[in-house]
Fold this protein.
Amino acid sequence: MSDGYITAMGIPIRAGRDLTERDAASDDPVILINETIARTLFPGEDAIGKIVRTDKERRVVGAAGAWILSRWMGGMLYSTTASDPVTFLGMLLVLGTVSTIAGYLPARRASRIDPAVALRAN
């Protein structure tokens, strides 16, 4: 991760600092956590400078905004809102097409079978 990546992604640093390239080269492993993790692990305390155990012990250097995941997920949806009519109509078209094909193909195969032959086989 390069310098300023978190800030460049629009994620606010609520406490401490962002990760830097010096952190990667350092013998002191560090971590940037979000506000929710900071409040959970260190209730009523400042998380900066505390040790968190992941794959190894890491020192907390910053706390980012707690909405990192929701912002990332929102970006993945290309700003689609809950009431976006284009999305609803598009999904209606996709699901309607898939369900029509899923019903038509087995019915077409079944219509090719001669009932007299099928009954004699039993």
Q: What stands out?
A: Helices lie at 5-8, 21-25, 35-41, 68-76, 85-111, 115-121. The CA atoms of residues 44 and 119 lie 76 Å apart. The chain has a mean pLDDT of 80.
